[in-house]
Amino acid sequence: MAGKIAIVGGGISGLALAYYLARAEKKVTLYEASSEFGGLGSQFEFNGNYFEKFYHCMLPTDDSLLKLLSELKLEREVYWKESQFGYYHQGQIYPLNTASDLLKFKPLSFLGRLRLGASGIYTTLHSGKNLDRITFREWIIPVCGNETYQKFFRPLLAAKFGGAADGVPALWFWARFNREKGAKKEVKGYIRGGYRRIVAALSQACKARGATLLSDQPVSGVSAADNGALEVIVPEGSFIFDAVVATCPLPLLFDIVRDDKVAGGLEKYRSIDYAGVINTVIFLKEPLKLGYWTATPEEQLPFQGIVNLSALIDIDDLAGEYPVHLMYYCHRNSEQYRRNTESTRDEFSDAFVRHFLAGQSSKIKESFCFKAPFVEPLFSTGFLEQKPVFELLPGHFYLCTTPQVYPEVASWNSSIQLARELSRVIERA
User: Fold this and answer.
1) 98 FRET partner, CA 20 to 30 A, in 234, 271, 318, 382?
2) Are 13 and 161 found together in one domain?
């Protein structure tokens, strides 16, 4: 295959793929619809400094991400801190980080606490074999019991998958748990300068190897051209490529690819859907006395979790600010997602003030609200057999999208790993 390749989408998958292909001396042009690269790593400005719209962190098990950072000469810029998990229940926050914490976890009966601990051991020791065909609910209840599932596991799953919580495959949970618990200590990492620095370094490395990265260039069409080539239509015109790789969410791809010759292999993936996220970022006047992540599964709260960035990120990387993220995962067609960002921001902020700031709204400097419609693929049992393949039109049209990382969790690490695997496929074509 000749080396002229178009990449649709400039998130981390697209940037990483452009880097690997350019390194292999392919002629790469990347088209990004928005004004900035990085996808969910996009930024906003506050008080003259840039902050991430959605939270990010690294884990010691993120081998693909850490290897890429090493190649970009950024590995020494990563730092690690022990992270703390809390669980909000009836006005009280329960830490849940040690065996002692577990024994004091009052939301569950004493037997329920013991069975929750047994569930962790059971998940760690399991090989993961055959877990794709059974729901997590069916798999874990014989170990943890119905009380622990309904009061602990299900609210956490519902925070990520909504009404599809009970259908989540056991394999997904197994992979997530072992990624999170893959180190001796519960630690998370961040990079000096923020994820913006990764995007900048990766973009620079792509360009240094001859790749062309174009922002504000939404792809409106991909169709077959002569001699097996593909035509890509963007605002600047139409261009011919030997191959095209789509890294955008699948629902967007259906609007782009209408040529039956190209889209034929896509149709079987039309049922794959995604959860979106609403994220309110609150800047406080002083640090919040919470751990890095606190689950807030009670229905009286409009958000499902709190990420306290100052518990992980150095104050210099936060420009002296104290941001807190309040998340709510939901479908892009849901009533909550369709609400305007101002009313959502106010609702989240008011609830946060009542329950976590003792009603003192004066502690807030400013707040913002952001949405992303395609964050977490909604997986169902048997997804290993439904998972999209790399090649839709052999040698010419490829996919590199988050549903393909299954059973791994959708993350920068898994997206980079997927991009590396696909680059090898294209290099061999």
Assistant:
1) 318
2) no
